Amino acid sequence: MGPRVVHRLLRPVTLTLSLVFVFAVLLAAVCAKESDYYELLGVSREATTREIRQAFKKLALTMHPDKNPGDSSAHEKFLKVNRAYEVLKDEDLRKKYDKYGEKGLDEQQGGRYESWNFYRYDFGIYDDDLEIITLDSGDFEAAVNSGEIWFVNFYFPRCSHCHQLAPTWREFAKEMDGVIRIGAVNCGDNNHLCRRKGINSYPSLYIYRAGQRPEKFTGERNRDNLVRFSMQFITTKVTELWQGNVFTEIENAFSSGLGWLITFCSDTGGNKHSCQCKTLG
């Protein structure tokens, strides 16, 4: 009997290899898909810079590698979140990302981050204070030239005097709410802005009025001094309220958005100048 020839069917093997190859390509494509920075931070595409900072801080306090020493992937996960924040907090980078995606950005952006303690104690000192508006390079000029009076605190996150001032600045902001606008600029995040404004020490406190040069506060930084300094720049109009106009005037005040200081007097003998007063803000 001659040699036996065995014919092998190669088609199924070829088909199997083809399927494996296709699967591998699809898997690689999925892995290579760009992460959506807004989704990483859990914010909408219309989120304000303040909302982006607040969202990032919450994630930093839970995802930071310092808080997850047993997770070998914590560093890489946090790098992605940090990169998303570094891009979206910057007006120019955010525009590039919105238009071109990650391919329009510098690959090194967001490659470094701070310690967990920094995010817990130093990051965004005034972000949670409703009466204090945190200003950035993108909105600073529009704010201080809006026609309203702004008192702005330029601070640096690692400045001990800045942290010492914070409780006083919050108390002052609550007292002046509706009278002037109280702002804060983080010079750690807005170095170019602070340099343009000539800020070389922290904290630096300036009054801004549209069309006029800024006025620097140089006194002792306590609430009473801050109030007295601010009131120098406020022009007032005194309106006498009586039964016939009180509701109309107050309604007009609310609709205009202007702050009012109302003094209630009890007549003590018909002399207006000797009345006993109680003032409400």
TrEMBL record:
<dbReference type="InterPro" id="IPR036249">
    <property type="entry name" value="Thioredoxin-like_sf"/>
</dbReference>
<protein>
    <recommendedName>
        <fullName>DnaJ homolog subfamily C member 10</fullName>
    </recommendedName>
</protein>
<dbReference type="Pfam" id="PF00085">
    <property type="entry name" value="Thioredoxin"/>
</dbReference>
<dbReference type="InterPro" id="IPR036869">
    <property type="entry name" value="J_dom_sf"/>
</dbReference>
<dbReference type="GO" id="GO:0005788">
    <property type="term" value="C:endoplasmic reticulum lumen"/>
</dbReference>
<dbReference type="GO" id="GO:0051787">
    <property type="term" value="F:misfolded protein binding"/>
</dbReference>
<dbReference type="InterPro" id="IPR052460">
    <property type="entry name" value="ER_disulfide_reductase"/>
</dbReference>
<dbReference type="GO" id="GO:0015035">
    <property type="term" value="F:protein-disulfide reductase activity"/>
</dbReference>
<feature type="signal peptide">
    <location>
        <begin position="1"/>
        <end position="32"/>
    </location>
</feature>
<dbReference type="Pfam" id="PF00226">
    <property type="entry name" value="DnaJ"/>
</dbReference>
<dbReference type="InterPro" id="IPR001623">
    <property type="entry name" value="DnaJ_domain"/>
</dbReference>
<dbReference type="InterPro" id="IPR035673">
    <property type="entry name" value="ERdj5_TRX_N"/>
</dbReference>
<dbReference type="GO" id="GO:0016671">
    <property type="term" value="F:oxidoreductase activity, acting on a sulfur group of donors, disulfide as acceptor"/>
</dbReference>
<dbReference type="InterPro" id="IPR013766">
    <property type="entry name" value="Thioredoxin_domain"/>
</dbReference>
<feature type="domain" description="Thioredoxin">
    <location>
        <begin position="121"/>
        <end position="235"/>
    </location>
</feature>
<feature type="domain" description="J">
    <location>
        <begin position="36"/>
        <end position="101"/>
    </location>
</feature>
<dbReference type="GO" id="GO:0036498">
    <property type="term" value="P:IRE1-mediated unfolded protein response"/>
</dbReference>
<keyword id="KW-0732">Signal</keyword>
